[in-house]
Write a structure and sequence with these properties.
The protein has helices at about 65-70, 105-110, 115-125, 145-155, 175-185, 195-205, 220-260, 265-275, 345-350, 385-390, 395-405; strands spanning about 25-35, 35-45, 50-55, 80-85, 90, 160-165, 190-195, 205-210, 215-220, 300-305, 310, 315-320, 325-330, 360-365. With about 425 residues, the chain is α/β, with parallel strands linked by helices. The chain binds adenosine-5'-diphosphate and magnesium ion.
Length: about 425
């Protein structure tokens, strides 16, 4: 598939329909907590047809939950949600869900209505699923293809608002570009959660930041939001400091005059005055992640050597590495390529090279490998955070707790 080979068949999306004048939805002062842990409170928002809003914020702040409240999959604990009667949402969840991975592409999108079926056929072509591929099973699709098919399925419902929860996770660069180009042509509403700065800059022109302080709105792209946010924070700090200085002076005045009967009333009225003042809260600078890595001193120069390694199954290799690849101490190497081209397989072959006694990979004996897997498949969902980490480590518990704290896992979270 070529880079921007998407030709949006305009009449097949809701793009050409007349826009809805009234807001698509409004929610007022909503709050939400799970098991007594408050995610957010007093959040209000409304949205018009054609708006393109990014929702950003740290993991776990409740972005997905906000999306689910808009859709009606979750209810707020407090506050009201109103939805336009004409609102039709197309929702792409953070993890795509398939009833059966044995279904073929065609079975997944089949419709009894002949007009809808005709539209679907066009969409399939538009999305790069040629007729040849229609018999492929869902289980054989790459992550990117699955996301595309899920998007296609929801477009057949003719939505006027797309709600996309981290749509570019697991996509290769090419499919991300495809997605950007598709969404640029989409003229109705979009709400998108993502951590991909470049993607957000292309797709959304408003950026709403969710944190424990609520939803703060910036009417600009993500990049501009980062700048604007720094300015807002600085201003808040300035006015907070000014206020603290003022309060200190007032307190000194009160302390001085309160004791004497002749001046006590002046102190009293000053106290009343202060009580009425609306106070600026101390601006919260978000806690950053702190990681300290105790690098060992250089243990070798040549870390690894790979010679013409056949990646994939022997009968049908995905690719063969160059005649000679070297990794030296301190190298930082990026591996790029399409989904399904064999990047993870390559890494796994390196990981297992000693057990498999693979001659093409020579790993220096002094090297200890650390591996971070794509789908968190190394993690045991039954264990709590501390159990999980201690079970695979020989480091003392206290040290582990310190490291976890630096990663913002603290107190109750750890058990
Ligand atoms: N249905 C639920 N039941 C209990 N806890 C939940 C549920 N949905 C989300 N949470 C918790 O609420 C927090 C916010 O979740 P989420 O909305 O997925 O955040 P985000 O999308 O910003 O990462 C997380 O700590 C998550 O574990
Ligand atoms: Mg989420």
């Amino acid at each position: 598939m070529e880079k921007n080979d998407i030709k949006i068949s305009k009449s097949f999306y809701a793009n050409n329909l007349i826009k809805i004048k009234e807001p698509l939805f409004i929610f007022r002062n909503i709050s939400k907590s799970f098991f007594g842990k408050e995610l957010f409170e007093d959040v209000s928002m409304s949205m018009s047809d054609g708006e393109r809003i990014a929702i950003v914020g740290a993991n776990g702040t409740g972005k997905s939950t906000i999306l689910k409240i808009i859709i009606g999959l979750e209810d707020p604990d407090q506050g009201s949600v109103e939805r336009n009667r004409e609102l039709k949402i197309g929702y792409l969840p953070q993890e795509t869900h398939w009833d059966s991975l044995k279904n073929t592409i065609l079975q997944e999108v089949r419709s009894d209505d002949s007009e809808t079926q005709r539209r679907i056929t066009y969409l399939l072509e538009d999305f790069g699923f040629s007729e040849k591929s229609w018999k492929r099973k869902i289980s054989s699709l790459s992550g990117g293809e699955k996301t595309k098919l899920a998007l296609l399925k929801l477009l057949t419902l003719n939505p006027n608002l797309l709600i996309l929860d981290e749509p570019t996770n697991h996509l290769d660069l090419q499919t991300i570009e495809w997605m950007e180009s598709f969404l640029s042509g989409w003229k109705r509403g979009i709400i998108c959660v993502s951590h991909d700065r470049y993607f957000l800059d292309k797709v959304c022109d408003k950026t709403f930041e969710l944190s424990s302080n609520g939803l703060e709105k910036y009417y600009c792209s993500y990049s501009q939001y980062l700048e604007e946010r720094a300015v807002r924070l600085e201003n808040r700090e300035l006015s907070y400091n000014r206020q603290e200085k003022y309060l200190k002076k007032q307190q000194e005045f009160i302390d001085r005059f309160r004791a004497k009967a002749s001046t006590a009333s002046r102190a009293q009225s000053r106290i009343k005055q202060l009580e009425k003042m609306e106070l600026v809260e101390k601006p919260e600078t978000s806690k950053g992640i702190k990681i300290r890595l105790d690098f060992e001193i250089k243990v070798c120069s040549r870390v690894m050597e790979i010679k013409s390694l056949l990646v994939g199954a022997e009968e049908s290799p995905l690719f063969i590495t160059p005649e000679r690849l070297e990794v030296n101490w301190g190298d930082k190497i990026g591996i790029v390529g399409r989904n399904g081209s064999g990047k993870s397989t390559f890494l796994k072959m390196i990981l297992r090279c000693q057990e498999d006694d693979r001659k093409e990979v020579k790993l220096n004996d002094r090297i200890k490998l650390g591996y971070y897997a794509q789908g968190h498949e190394e993690l045991d969902p039954e264990k709590n955070i501390l159990e999980e980490v201690t079970s695979k480590s020989t480091v003392e518990e206290e040290k582990i707790r310190n490291i976890l704290g630096g990663l913002l896992f603290s107190g109750k979270d750890v058990f």
